[in-house]
Amino acid sequence: MNNKNKIFCDHHGCWHEPRDIWLSWANLVTAVRTAAAVVLTMLAIAQHSTTLLFAGLLAYWIGDMADGMVARRLNRETRIGGTFDILCDRLCVALFYMTYATWHHNMLIPIGIYMVQFMVLDNFLTLSFTHWPLKSPNYFYLVDRFIYKWNWSKPAKALNSSALVLVMVLTKSPLATSILAAAIFALKVVSLRRLQQIGLPEVVGCTEAKTI
Predict the structure, then answer these.
(1) 27 with 87: CB under 8 angstroms?
(2) What is the value of pTM for the model shown?
């Protein structure tokens, strides 16, 4: 049977449940790690503590790995969980970078480039998974392997989430950090261009809510 005509399939990454799950252990982990990151960042601002600021970033990183691991181990990957995770990522990352930028004005340009990329381009790209019956962007290879490889494979996630921080902190070079931020920005533009060429699935049916 042609894949385009399939209603059901056996792909692990596809979503076929009639209703999504709001309350789950994975979503709880996402909520806790986000709260921890926010609280630590607020304390960092109050005390002007770089240690607390990076502790908040670490809480986000560890929690971001943990919620996905819990969802997979318990077989509770959901579209709501995936979207919730994406939105919480934006909050945690924005708090960290904007706080860091206020303390290190020499990093305003690279952080500005990165924030536009992460909060707008990457956000649009990441949420595009909702246009297909996918559980999360982690399974976007079912749609396009190029976009998946450069955005949500493990190396790509490491590049997008931690590379800029490491270059920024280790080199303390605005130029090197700006070059990396611009490279990531360019990658998102290329990915969005490819997404445009693929095209989002046509919306069919009626949007009228069916209440019980």
Answers:
(1) no
(2) 0.87
